[in-house]
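pipeline/complex-builder :: batch 7 item 3
reading input block
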Amino acid sequence: MSSIDHTHDPALTSWVESANAPDTDFPVQNLPFGRFRVEDDPEWRIGVAIGDQVLDLRGAGLINHSDMNRLIRLKPETRRELRAQISAGLATGSAQAGRWERHLHAQSAVEPGLPCEIRDYTDFYIGIHHATAVGKLFRPDNPLLPNYEWVPIGYHGRASTLQVSGRDFHRPKGQVKAADAAAPVLGPSQRLDLELELGFVIGRPNAMGHAIPLAEAEDHLFGVTLFNDWSARDLQAWEYQPLGPFLSKNFASTLSAWMVTLDALAPFRTALRRPAGHPDPLPYLDTEANRRSGAMDIDLDVLLQTRAMRDAGVPPEVISRSNAAEAAFWTPAQLVAHHTVNGCALSAGDLFGSGTLSGPLREQAGSLLEMTEGGKRAITLANGETRSFLQDGDRIQLRGRCARDGFRSIGFGDCSATVLPAL
Amino acid sequence: MSSIDHTHDPALTSWVESANAPDTDFPVQNLPFGRFRVEDDPEWRIGVAIGDQVLDLRGAGLINHSDMNRLIRLKPETRRELRAQISAGLATGSAQAGRWERHLHAQSAVEPGLPCEIRDYTDFYIGIHHATAVGKLFRPDNPLLPNYEWVPIGYHGRASTLQVSGRDFHRPKGQVKAADAAAPVLGPSQRLDLELELGFVIGRPNAMGHAIPLAEAEDHLFGVTLFNDWSARDLQAWEYQPLGPFLSKNFASTLSAWMVTLDALAPFRTALRRPAGHPDPLPYLDTEANRRSGAMDIDLDVLLQTRAMRDAGVPPEVISRSNAAEAAFWTPAQLVAHHTVNGCALSAGDLFGSGTLSGPLREQAGSLLEMTEGGKRAITLANGETRSFLQDGDRIQLRGRCARDGFRSIGFGDCSATVLPAL
């Protein structure tokens, strides 16, 4: 497990001035990892975000390769040593300042990539308020299935269409069938939705056949991102039985560019805020440490900017606010332990989506499906526009932020993309 | 589309004598691609199987790299040129015989690898008799869901636990819940099963957002393998609602080592033998060519060898015989067109599992679940042993074979693995 150390000292400041702005996502207490390219060099580099800059780790002499999927395999103690080195070198008064300065690039001037090469991608379903609300729409009489309180429900997704924040995508087409129609038709989705999720990136792999015990699970987790699992609800309703969602989900998903490490998140660990009335987990999913601090206290926002708002210079509008520790029924470590209990082999660069992290209230919903009760109650924006589902030109942004008295707040950077018309 | 040419001439023989044996899977008319390693060299090589030998393509000067995921991206016409070159060089009387002979390795002396690096893996459900039989067990009143006759049902699987034939695996553990129990328990699966499938390997990718029309779909398919999608039925029954199978499937899957190319399969293309009473597919899944010859006439066998049989020197026993064209409700090209109709990007090295290819009769079932009617009617082997589901030490082998009057028969090689005890 990560613990709080001098890298979290709220008094620390950086010689990179923008890292000292109160509202930056990337103060020197954060130090998230990502990949970027600069003009005239096609190679991806490994960087750490600091204020509005990114530090080229290889350029600064901190690592001797550019392979993020190798870096994230580091043992936890080695990873923490690297973090301590970066923290010390970026701190005000550091002797490295002069030498490292020329390895800083403005984030606005570089091209961000996916934070690592994503191997297998699994999407979980840990948002119990989401599962209950969606269950009501699909199965009014049976919203939360009996396995939900025992099994961290998950399913496999598609890695090839994961994109980094800022890459737009086309509205998907697919088969949809009206309830009263005899046959389905092929057409653009009319019920395109977002899903507010976190992404958990696996660092250290396990050998096939060998389960990872819950107590060791966080040693295999490298970092956390924002994640938008775009969903076509009309395609989903028609295709998902009996084997689960497929084309309704695999046309695009958006990942933020920066992996906030479990080390950076150490001050913001907390207990899950599970609703009452559920049994204790089976022993392989239960430790005292996991109960006490297995969850992550991350505030999450969903923002929408329509084309009309963009044209009028109106900034994105918050349409939902949630919190990961309140929304989640399972912790990231429980997901690792469950995913491997059958011997499944995880790889460096696997991505776990959390599932939609909705709070219990409508204004805390992580999807339009929930906010609009299946499209029946459109939301009204400040400019008078309404939305049941996403329209072409809509841009969705996710934000994440950790705050705790006595600690410097950290954030997750941008996770946004715009819906382009169907091709 | 591939067509029949001189490489399929049944009169062709090879200077590699074992390729002329009547029962070989790999006569000179086949020429399937795979990867292998030889002792003292850790690098994977690209080979073509011929009789009981494998030809090292780079050694023979036919290609200048060892990257199968690059080779399978070849344009169809370039791929066919390469096939014609290999065919001519291996044919009796070829001028290459002397030079190529030292680039032959006995298959028994090399280590086979997965035929390419598998990127995303999708499992389909095209076996209509399987879907009906399994549907009866899970939903007696509603075996075949209304979407089945319209949608090529599929879901994403896990690539990291795909193994090449010959690699054994441990029985998975997982949560199971007895119907009359208040809570699930964690334990080794008691209902471990096989699934007789074909694997379709994607060669040429498509750009994200751009659907592949059915008429071009086969240009994106490189080859076909045997595929065993091991399944833990007790884990599956408890976990699969509402998002589909997960830990019940992702502990291990076994792929044969050789990709039989669509070019080699050209003489064995046929119409689907769909049961009557289903509607025509939607236009994006329907062409005249696909109706006429979209399916593959591949005879399939499942063989079981228990530990007791192995100890007594008894060979594997056939427990089921099926045929892909009779079992399948959708063609491989329809799977490509459907998978991309929403803009999903396919990659070189993606694997599509067909789903279990059962015939309509019990002795044609591609899984024990069907053969034993959910475990209620055990099968009896020739030595008197019975099986409801697989026991530790059981070895399952899949075989595939194409035969047609006027053509040389070809086969798929071995696809086998043994169940090891749970760890």
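note: The radius of gyration of chain B is 21 Å.
queue -> next item
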